[in-house]
Amino acid sequence: RKFNTKMEMVSYRALHTKLMLKGIIGKRV
């Protein structure tokens, strides 16, 4: 997938990081 703007890429990376953190926390609990 190609990113049109830097902002779109930033929001995508933030969402990806959020999901990763959620998964790590989910495994710990």
TrEMBL record:
High-level lineage: unclassified sequences, metagenomes, ecological metagenomes
Name of the featured protein: Uncharacterized protein
